[in-house]
Design goal:
Pfam families: Fer2_4, Fer4_7, Molybdop_Fe4S4, Molybdopterin, Molydop_binding, NADH-G_4Fe-4S_3. Its EC number is 1.17.1.9. The chain is 30% helix and 16% strand. The strands form eleven sheets. It has a seven-stranded mixed β-sheet, sandwiched between helices. A six-stranded mixed β-barrel has the order 32-36-33-35-34-37. The chain has a five-stranded parallel β-sheet with strand order 19-18-17-21-22. Helix 6 packs across helix 7 and helix 25 packs across helix 27. 56% of the residues are buried.
Length: 990
């Protein structure tokens, strides 16, 4: 909102409010409502509903097109303006059957209903006319009812220009216009990714969540055979009594419903984008997820998981009581018995084998406060630094690369900086599927402001399709092209000499290290033509601001830390740190994988990345925790990867795993399972009896985020608070409560009664969080670390200093080392792997209820048309993929998303999954498994093909229909259109 003020003369009254904002929003700040339906503060002015007419300078204008400025004079009481508004509403009602009291959407959120009531419409002047279409139920999450659609175009603008999936359109030239999916009538099979934008902005019940149907209100669940006659009676009654009596009943109904509906702000439990939104619930029934404009990361944006994938909350598979293994079977237990057993066995193991015989894996889906308590138990009670989280499997290499060069292990700026950049380089990141809301922001920047993209990836995903230049690289060779780009900058005068001289160390040594990295050499190693590499280099060199994004396509290699370093080096050479629209952005995969690391679930750092090996740091934490300094180890602990390895060797004797599916996610599943089998004692704290929990001696039922309170940190270092939407299911408990109770039974009664007390403790010790508090995180507020003691955030890092003793960055010389595993004569194919939009990790959450998995229920491998032809394979044929460790059987999907002898497979399905194939080879700097370095051979199986392994209703089969805006001019240009206040012969068509 603008801080500058202006005075607007409205209906003869002088109103003071923010300058240069939409008139409708300006009036709202003055507690005045200008009737409107198609206007939405997150969308462009659509001008489709004709309900907001006002008089300005003697002319009728649509109020949604005006912005506040000094001296603006508006008259809404003008007779013609009022008549035009009423005519506009009359036309909307000709397209929409008002049956509000039995409508699922009459919960106070229906813009059409609320505006109609506010305008005191006396009667529906134009008769409602049914359209020649049926209601579309083909999507698992929402419906489209053409008979209720008012053709406002909100959904189209949200899809085209906010989400930028470019699926929806309206053809106003049709005999009976309606919303179209890829130009057709059915949602299923179109390019719709079920992000829910369209449902969120729909001003009526034309687009509606299936979870709102049919029992959103006291009368909505009645069967259609009763509802239909009742509606017909009410519509006849309206003509004699007038509409206001009937609408008055619906207003009462709205009020009654709102008393039952609870709206709670929460933060998404899926990827690292950090979307926040309201959850609408009645008791334990989740009616809908409703994003709001005030959400700091996403605004009104969501993806399929954040909007719809919450069926797991009430899944009958949820753990609701502690379990103890006896005679190789689980039996229910009380919390007292379970926690007492866990406490005694951990202390017994510590005393018998030493502190380092126990390992802790904290949750990247739990809260910051819970991560803090996990490492506090490990360090202050057990005395070990062997504590880690799932960032070991994905983003630790990126963190290491940033530590080496610029100093902080997080994004250099915010999503706003990504959107501002002139050029975004996207490396090893299928952003549209893995971080879809960030992808939407970037797609909008590209579509509307001409942002350029350089995408480097072996696979042609959506970001690659939209890129200005796509480098289809040989997997694992990214360090070479990045270093070649850096050399090209020096050789052609594109380096930022002033920035390097003033702010960067080791410039000359680094430049000398680039000698081998010619474009010719890079072309040989990467498989990209030299001319294409030169084109990429020129794109980088000439860009005024550059951001680089990368994800698991970079980090999950045997030298992912080095490649991450190379990317950061390239940014330093070109001076692309410390300015808006610049910096390195490693995309975090889980909702709190950043926060789990930030708050101390790392083998070498206390919260705030304070070294465990520094005696002074140890002294500080020991004093704060009230324990002897010698209790806190100065020795770097073991990480996830090594804990499992040492469990297999019976060096680690006990483990405590919170909210992580390690048995599914760690590489080389057979070795992982053997390690867990060899443990003397394993505790698993989770929502479900996961694959990991099946190895446990004690299973503790934790709570999802919607059943507790806490905070998360997203990929841009933003700390956000979430609130309890509903009570814990059964006898499950919030993880922070479980850990607090466990500590008390181990002789350390910390006495926390609320997570805010835990956050206050962290803020009092860790410098990076000095000014973080729950009061400063209230509602939609957020903070971005480092947070100063006065509460001020640091959205953009490195504006003045880098995180180093001398405040300077460091260029870090590197040499090329090939992948640890490559294709050879026996294992002649490379099996790339990664996430899919509709699934998440082990599908423990997204796999519940069946709606999300229905989009792609079967595991499959993508193969190129070239390979399919060479091996005589057709869509759906079964193959066996055999690696040096194991084998899996899957059907094939033939697609040009992959090329040549590089395949792609999802990491989600098949409960032992991809890690039956992956190996122990890993990045020696950070012990991240090289999941992406996977050579296989392929054998055809004599088995009937699986029809449609990627179902025909899946969005990947769709063909987008991109438009710039809702084509309202088409409506105005129709021969039968009359501009209000003139009456309209065919109002149902507009």
């Amino acid at each position: 909102m603008s801080l500058q003020k202006c005075t607007v003369l409205y209906d003869g009254r002088a109103l003071v409010g923010p300058q240069n904002v939409p008139l409708i929003d300006f009036l709202e700040t003055c507690n005045i409502t200008l009737p409107h339906v198609c206007y939405h503060p997150a969308l462009d002015p659509l001008q489709t509903c004709d309900v907001c007419w006002v008089e300005q300078e003697g002319k009728l204008v649509r109020g949604c097109t005006l912005r506040s400025h000094e001296g603006l004079v508006i008259n809404s009481l003008d007779t013609q303006a009022r008549a035009a508004r009423e005519e506009g509403m009359d036309r909307l009602l000709a397209k929409h059957e008002l049956y509000c009291t039995v409508c699922e959407h009459n919960t106070g959120d229906c813009t059409l209903h609320n505006t109609m009531v506010d305008m005191h419409i006396p009667i529906q002047r134009y008769p409602y006319t049914r359209k020649p279409y049926v209601k579309d139920h083909s999507n698992p999450f929402y419906t489209y009812d053409p008979d209720q659609c008012i053709l406002c175009g909100r959904c189209v603008d949200a899809c085209q220009n906010v989400e930028v999936n470019e699926t929806l359109s309206i053809d106003y030239t049709m005999e009976h216009p309606r919303v179209l999916w890829d130009g057709g009538n059915q949602i299923a099979g179109s390019s719709c990714v079920s992000c829910g934008h369209c449902v969120t902005v729909c001003p009526c019940n034309a687009l509606l969540e299936k979870s709102m149907q049919p029992d959103a209100g006291p009368f909505t669940s009645m069967r259609q055979s009763l509802k239909r006659p009742l509606i017909d009676v009410i519509k006849v009654l309206e003509n004699s009594t007038g509409a206001e009596i009937i609408s008055g009943i619906s207003v009462i109904d709205t009020a009654l419903r709102q008393q039952e509906i609870k709206r709670t702000k929460t933060v998404c439990t899926y990827c690292g984008v950090g979307c926040s939104f309201e959850m609408w619930t009645r008791d334990r029934q989740l009616l809908k997820v409703q994003p709001v404009v005030d959400a700091p990361v996403n605004g009104i944006s969501t993806c399929v998981k954040g909007k719809f994938a919450w069926d797991f909350i009430n899944s009958p598979q949820r753990l609701t009581t502690p379990l103890i293994r006896e005679n190789d079977r689980f039996r229910p237990a009380s919390w007292e018995e379970a926690l007492t057993l866990v406490a005694s066995r951990l202390l017994q193991t510590r005393d018998q084998y030493g502190p380092d015989s126990i390992g802790f894996i904290g949750s990247s889906k739990g809260s910051n406060e819970e991560a803090y308590l996990t490492q506090k138990i490990a360090r202050a009670i057990i005395g070990t630094n062997s504590v880690d989280n799932s960032s070991r499997y994905c983003q630790n290499p990126a963190t290491e690369g940033l530590f080496r060069t610029v100093g902080y292990g997080g994004d250099a700026g915010t999503i706003d900086d990504l959107q501002q950049a002139e050029l975004v380089i996207i490396v090893g990141s299928n952003t549209a599927e893995n971080h879809p809301v960030i992808a939407s922001r970037l797609k909008a920047a590209k579509k509307h402001y001409g942002q350029k993209w350089l995408v480097v990836d072996p696979r042609r995903h959506e970001m690659a399709e939209r890129a200005d230049l796509h480098l289809r690289i040989h997997p694992g060779s990214d360090l070479v092209w990045a270093s070649a780009m850096a050399r090209y900058m020096f050789d052609h005068g594109y380096e930022d000499a002033g920035f390097l001289a003033e702010r960067v160390n080791q410039v000359e040594a680094y430049r000398q290290s680039l000698t081998p990295f010619t474009l010719d050499y890079a072309a040989q190693i990467t498989g990209i033509q030299e001319e294409t590499l030169r084109e990429a280099a020129e794109l980088i060199g000439k860009a005024g601001s550059v951001c680089i994004m990368w994800a698991m396509g970079i980090t999950q290699h045997s030298h992912g830390a080095d490649t991450s370093t190379a990317l950061s080096n390239l940014l330093l050479v070109t001076g692309n740190y410390g300015r808006p629209g610049t910096g390195g952005y490693p995309m975090r995969g889980h909702n709190n994988v950043q926060g789990a690391s930030d708050f101390g679930c790392l083998k070498n750092f206390y919260p705030g990345y304070e070294s465990v090996s520094d005696p002074q740091i140890r002294e500080k934490w020991a004093k704060a925790w009230g324990v002897p300094a010698e209790r806190l180890s100065l020795k770097v602990g073991q990480d996830n990867f090594m804990m499992v390895e040492l469990a297999r060797k019976e060096v680690i004797r006990a483990m405590y795993v919170i909210g992580e599916e390690t048995a599914f996610s760690d590489a080389d599943a057979e070795n992982v399972h053997q390690g867990f089998t060899n443990l003397d004692f394993l505790v698993v704290q989770d929502l479900f009896l996961s694959r990991t929990a099946q190895f446990a001696d004690v299973v503790l039922p934790g709570c999802p985020s919607v059943e507790k309170e806490g905070s998360f940190v997203n990929t841009e270092r933003r700390i956000q608070r979430f609130y309890p939407v509903m009570a814990p299911l059964g006898d499950s408990r919030p993880d922070w409560w479980i850990l607090t109770q466990l500590a008390a039974r181990m002789g350390h009664d910390w006495g926390y009664q609320h997570p805010q007390e835990i956050m206050a403790e962290v803020a009092g010790i860790a410098e990076s969080f000095a000014g973080v508090s729950y009061s400063r995180l209230e509602g939609w507020k957020s903070q971005i670390w480092p947070v100063n003691a006065d509460g001020s955030s640091t959205p953009l890092l490195y504006t003045e200093r880098f995180k180093s003793p001398d405040g300077r960055a460091t260029l870090y010389p590197l040499s090329w080392q090939p992948p640890a595993e490559e294709a050879d004569a026996e294992y002649d194919l490379l099996l790339n792997n990664g996430r899919m939009l509709e699934h998440f990790q082990s599908t423990n959450q997204t796999g519940q209820g069946g709606r999300t998995t229905s989009l792609s229920p079967d595991w499959f491998v993508e193969i190129s048309p070239q390979l399919a032809s060479a091996r005589s394979l057709q869509e759906g044929d079964w193959v066996k993929l055999i690696s040096r460790r194991g084998e899996v059987e899957v059907p094939v999907v033939v697609t040009d998303r992959v090329q040549g002898k590089v395949l792609f497979i999802s990491i989600h399905q098949g409960k032992d999954g991809i890690n039956k194939l992956t190996g122990e080879h890993h990045d020696p700097s950070v012990n991240t498994p090289a999941y992406k370095e996977l050579a296989v051979r392929l054998e055809t199986l004599d088995r009937p093909p699986l029809p449609d392994p990627l179902p025909k209703h899946n969005f990947r089969h769709g063909k987008r229909t991109a438009i710039d805006k809702v084509p309202v001019e088409e409506k105005w240009q129709r021969a039968d259109y009359r501009e209000p206040p003139a009456t309209e012969p065919h109002p149902e068509k507009f």
